[in-house]
Design a protein that fits this description.
GO terms for molecular function: methyltransferase activity. α2 packs across α3 and α5 packs parallel to α6. The radius of gyration is 18 Å and the shape is globular. It has 6 helices and 7 strands; from the N terminus they run αβαβαβαβαβαββ. It is α/β, with parallel strands linked by helices and 261 residues long.
């Protein structure tokens, strides 16, 4: 969990607070992912605040969730491409702000049920649309005019929505059917659909586990596709431990650069 996520106006530098206080370990890939995602959302919320009328910004310290800001948007839209047990969905829901929106996808009903439960316990279910379909259908789900219930706050930003951040935690769901894993074709389809929807300054985080059948292919396919992105519009970084003996994992962070002035 980010240490600055409850402050909607914070614009932390990317190097802040990554290391444990005793210096006994490096940041995990999950730490790096959350830091990058939280930073993108904090910047997007700061823009909402900047456009808010005077006196419209309030502090929501009681709930621990950010975003008790009343402004004219556009409010952040976030995507959790693999809802699983709902940890990342909840992380995003806490940070998108009161009128922001998270689209969370999973193909397993059990995963969606767990995610719904987790959100309900935190009282944040209204910030999330759960999609019981594959992330490869992301474009249809987000761009279709009826992507969200009419009660959802979808009308405040650009249309089609500009996505501030997206998280993909690939592989299989721990404690569940290990034969249901993400796959190269569908992960790439989701990524290709997502790239044109990303807002300038937006970040995609892909946590890739190569240890399951098909995992190495998926990692290689992502590397190939991301390596071809135009350096003037995108920055792509890959993080991994060089000597981790088991369960190889890596983190890919994709930043949509701001449009040239
Ligand atoms: C590693 S788990 C995700 C963990 C999750 N982010 C969390 O916070 O608990 C991977 C998930 O991806 C889901 N999945 C597999 N193929 C998918 C697809 N095509 N679209 C969306 N989700 C998919 C699996 O059902 C599984 O729940």
């Amino acid at each position: 969990m980010t240490r600055f996520g409850s402050d909607a106006t914070a614009r932390p530098g990317p190097c802040m607070e990554l290391f444990g206080c005793c210096g006994d370990e490096l940041p995990t890939l999950r730490d790096l992912s959350q830091q990058a995602v939280a930073h993108a959302l904090a910047c997007a919320l700061a823009d909402v605040t900047a456009h808010a009328p005077p006196g419209a910004v309030t502090d929501d310290a009681s709930s621990g969730a950010s975003g008790a800001v009343t402004g004219n948007g556009p409010w952040p839209v976030a995507v959790d491409g693999t809802a699983g047990n709902g940890h990342d969905t909840l992380f995003l829901a806490r940070l998108v702000g009161a009128r922001g929106l998270v689209h969370a996808f999973d193909v397993q009903p059990r995963a969606l049920a767990r995610t719904a439960e987790r959100l309900a316990s935190a009282g944040l279910e209204e910030r999330v649309v759960l999609h019981g379909r594959g992330h490869e259908e992301l474009a249809a789900a987000l761009v279709a005019p009826r992507a969200a219930p009419l009660s959802m706050p979808v009308g405040e930003g650009a249309w089609p929505p500009r996505v501030t951040t997206a998280m993909f935690n690939l592989g299989f769901l721990p404690g569940s059917d290990r034969s249901v894993t993400t796959r190269s074709e569908t992960t790439l389809a989701a990524l290709k659909a997502l790239l044109p929807l990303m807002a300038p300054g937006g970040v995609i985080s892909l946590h890739v586990y190569a240890g399951h059948p098909g995992g190495a292919d998926e990692a290689a396919a992502l590397d190939r596709h991301l390596a071809e992105l135009d350096w003037d519009r995108w920055q792509v970084a890959r993080y991994e431990f060089a000597n981790k003996p088991r369960n190889p994992e890596r983190l890919l962070l994709v930043l949509r650069l701001p449009d040239p002035a």
